[in-house]
Amino acid sequence: MKKRCNMNIMSMDIILIFVFAVICAGLVKGTCPSTCSCVDDSSGSHVNCYSKYLGRIPTLPKDTYYLDLRYNNITEIDVQLCKEMPQLHTIYISFNLIIEIPETTFADCEQLYRIDLQYNKIRSIESNTFVNMTNLYQLYLYNNKIRSLVSYTFINLTNLYRLQLSHNEISTIEPFTFMGLPSLQYLYLHNNKIRSLESNTFINMTKLYRLELSGNPLNCDCSIFPFWSWLIERSSIGTTAKCSNGTLVTSLQSAALETCHPDNCQCFNGGKCEAMGYELICDCIGQWTGRFCQDSQCTSFDCGFGDCYIEPVNGTAQCLCDDKYVNYCPGLYQSNNQTFEI
Ligand SMILES: *[C@@H]1O[C@H](CO)[C@@H](O)[C@H](O)[C@H]1NC(C)=O
Ligand SMILES: *[C@@H]1O[C@H](CO)[C@@H](O)[C@H](O)[C@H]1NC(C)=O
Ligand SMILES: *[C@@H]1O[C@H](CO)[C@@H](O)[C@H](O)[C@H]1NC(C)=O
Ligand SMILES: *[C@@H]1O[C@H](CO)[C@@H](O)[C@H](O)[C@H]1NC(C)=O
Ligand SMILES: *[C@@H]1O[C@H](CO)[C@@H](O)[C@H](O)[C@H]1NC(C)=O
Ligand SMILES: *[C@@H]1O[C@H](CO)[C@@H](O)[C@H](O)[C@H]1NC(C)=O
Ligand SMILES: *[C@@H]1O[C@H](CO)[C@@H](O)[C@H](O)[C@H]1NC(C)=O
């Protein structure tokens, strides 16, 4: 009888130790939130928190590799996702109320493959948010409120294949925004507010296959010329880019853009050809003026009895009286040790 009792106490201890160990492991690993369902498989935890009225991202199992947070009321991302879940491979946070993505959200996310942030209220993306995610294959940001894209936002996403930015409010795309996307094949920018595109906007996207740009009020004056030339050169790229009057950019005739060809514009004294409406004009540096930047201030400068001298760098005029630079050379001046009166 006594012996049996001892045995019971011993097995109770073992059970307690076991329970304690399981709790500890759970704490280290992060447990599955009661509202979500988690399935463990050989890759880790497959976590489903679809439509659970969540207001924020809960603490999740550390080995989560697949995370579905669609249709919740998440307003902010306050965790560094891949620091919490280093095996994270796929994340869906679409159909939430996120306004901003802190720059560190995706830090150390080299392994992340798919990010779905569509249907949120994101207003802007900082340039370091998505860098260096060398395994990222798909990035969905459509149906947000993004207004502009800054240079180098997607740098070093060497495997990105599909980038979805349609249905935002993008009006400005800075030069080199899409630098460092050697594998990108599908770029969706339709239904935004893009009026003009720089010639270097789509530079070095050698694999680009489809560029969706319809539903943007593209201005088809001379400012479209560099983009148009690029499209003609890369004729294999299917594009739906249209001018604000409905004409397809690819169907613009070179004759219509004749006056926009840089060869038809020559500027002197450091001036540059700029698109202005349906022609190119010279943008002069410094004090140079005139249609071709050929006139300096000397054209109208009154130097009195001296010579007008032009500073070549900036076209600024000065008067040369004898050996001195002044603003005006009066009638009475000294030369060769003799005083003249005129
Ligand atoms: C989100 O919040 C709104 C209003 O607060 C509520 O009506 C809706 O049911 C919530 N949806 C989810 C999925 O939590
Ligand atoms: C990206 O990777 C490079 C090289 O590994 C590193 O120097 C840089 O700091 C990283 N940038 C970010 C924002 O993590
Ligand atoms: C991109 O990657 C290269 C090579 O790893 C690295 O030198 C560079 O710093 C990275 N750029 C950024 C902005 O992190
Ligand atoms: C574009 O790619 C070419 C060849 O890969 C490279 O030489 C060039 O520097 C790249 N351009 C830019 C702006 O990085
Ligand atoms: C639209 O604008 C382009 C460029 O200015 C012009 O060539 C084209 O004829 C216009 N199309 C219509 C339908 O007005
Ligand atoms: C023009 O260049 C000269 C010489 O570099 C300099 O002294 C002068 O201040 C400049 N003027 C203007 C208006 O920039
Ligand atoms: C000007 O006058 C000074 C002395 O008054 C004289 O030394 C100098 O040689 C003269 N210069 C010329 C060019 O005549």
From TrEMBL:
The keyword Coiled coil is assigned to this record:
no
Q: Residues in domain EGF-like?
A: 261-294
Disulphide-bonded residues: C284-C293
Q: What is this protein identified as? A: PXDN
Task: State any single GO MF term.
Answer: lactoperoxidase activity
Keyword Disulfide bond included in the entry's annotation: yes
Q: In the record, what lineage is assigned to the organism producing the protein?
A: Eukaryota, Metazoa, Spiralia, Lophotrochozoa, Mollusca
Listed GO CC annotations: plasma membrane
Report the EC number(s), separated by commas if there are several: 1.11.1.7
Signal peptide region = 1-30
Q: Which InterPro entries does the record cross-reference, listed alphabetically?
A: EGF, Leu-rich_rpt, Leu-rich_rpt_typical-subtyp, LRR_dom_sf, LRR_TM_domain-containing, LRRNT
Q: Which domain of life is it from?
A: Eukaryota
Q: From the record, give the transmembrane residue ranges.
A: none
Could you tell me which PROSITE patterns the record lists for this protein?
Answer: EGF_1, EGF_3, LRR
Keywords assigned by UniProt, alphabetized: Disulfide bond, EGF-like domain, Leucine-rich repeat, Oxidoreductase, Peroxidase, Repeat, Signal
